[in-house]
């Protein structure tokens, strides 16, 4: 077997793992493939017979290539590229499967990190490299590398918590809309804080008053108490859709592609504390409104 065949055989043993490492760092399968291909070219130009730990060498090279690409996206004046080998690298295929199972949500969170933070977090938390091995790749001391990974971990965990909070609030608003459609008074009460407040702007007061004969709710500028709010909205919300209103879970109703009313919810400790009904055209036009797709948006009967 000649040198080229030997290199190709050994490189292909690690290709899938390298692809996964690069993908977690870059968030793009095409860019990851380019990084792996560049690692192959560098391997061909190297004195491969002198490499004691081929997988560790390839991980280092791919990481440095990815770091350069991340820095091109987010330039950092104090960072310079340098290919350095690392020690023994433990990367069984089980780690690859774990990393692949994390999905695109994690990639979005990783985009909030600086390039060194992202490299440190991915290599340590997802692929179990030691900080001593990672430090030369990002040209930091071992202690600084540990701090970078710790800071990245806190940011990722904090973002996950915020996403979980948003999901919980979406479920709460969806449950409220469903209870309103079904006229389930007790369910509405269970979702409302005892001192919940319902407010309606001047446009909402005018329009709903003119349409009370058609079943429009009887709003007031402000009404307080869960019982009163539940009675007011019981049997309503037939066409309301679960939405993000300025990034916060709420509900909207529209006609012909135009939002006519927005219900802005405030939630504390798992209870709805206030609902603001907005029908003012200027306010609506300045809101960022996005429908939330999925079972929770079904309008019901």
From TrEMBL:
Entries under Pfam families matching the protein: Sigma70_r2 (PF04542), Sigma70_r4_2 (PF08281)
Family annotation (InterPro entries): ECF_Sigma-70_Domain, NTF2-like_dom_sf, RNA_pol_sigma-70_dom, RNA_pol_sigma70_r2, RNA_pol_sigma70_r4_t2, RNA_pol_sigma_r2, RNA_pol_sigma_r3/r4-like, WH-like_DNA-bd_sf
Ranges for domain RNA polymerase sigma factor 70 region 4 type: 105-155
Domain RNA polymerase sigma-70 region: 11-74
Subunit structure: Interacts transiently with the RNA polymerase catalytic core formed by RpoA, RpoB, RpoC and RpoZ (2 alpha, 1 beta, 1 beta' and 1 omega subunit) to form the RNA polymerase holoenzyme that can initiate transcription.
Descriptive protein name: Sigma-70 family RNA polymerase sigma factor
Organism: Bowmanella denitrificans
């Amino acid at each position: 077997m000649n040198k080229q065949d030997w290199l190709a055989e050994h490189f292909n043993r690690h290709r899938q793992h390298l692809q996964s490492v690069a993908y977690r760092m870059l968030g793009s399968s095409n860019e990851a493939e380019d990084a792996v291909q560049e690692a192959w070219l560098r391997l061909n130009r190297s004195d491969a017979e002198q490499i004691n730990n081929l997988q560790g060498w390839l991980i280092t090279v791919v990481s440095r290539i990815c770091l350069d690409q991340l820095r091109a996206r987010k330039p950092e004046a104090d960072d310079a590229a340098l290919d350095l080998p690392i020690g023994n690298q433990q990367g069984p295929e089980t780690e690859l499967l774990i990393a692949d199972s994390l999905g695109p949500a994690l990639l979005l969170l990783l985009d909030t990190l600086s390039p060194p933070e992202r490299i440190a977090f991915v290599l340590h938390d997802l692929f179990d490299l030691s900080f001593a091995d990672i430090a030369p790749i990002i040209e930091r001391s071992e202690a600084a590398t540990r701090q970078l990974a710790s800071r990245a971990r806190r940011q990722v965990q904090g973002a996950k918590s915020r996403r979980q909070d948003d999901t919980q609030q979406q479920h709460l608003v969806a449950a409220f809309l469903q209870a309103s459609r079904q006229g389930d008074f007790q369910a509405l009460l269970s979702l409302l804080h005892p001192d919940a407040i319902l407010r309606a702007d001047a446009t909402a007061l005018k329009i709903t008053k003119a349409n009370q004969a058609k079943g429009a709710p009887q709003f007031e500028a402000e009404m307080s108490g869960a019982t009163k709010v539940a009675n007011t909205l019981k049997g309503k919300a037939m066409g309301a859709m679960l939405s993000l209103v300025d990034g916060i879970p709420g509900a909207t109703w529209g006609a012909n592609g135009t939002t006519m009313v927005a219900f802005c919810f405030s939630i504390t400790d798992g209870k709805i504390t206030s609902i603001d009904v907005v029908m003012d055209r200027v306010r609506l036009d300045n809101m960022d409104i996005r429908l939330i797709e999925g079972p929770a948006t079904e309008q019901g009967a």
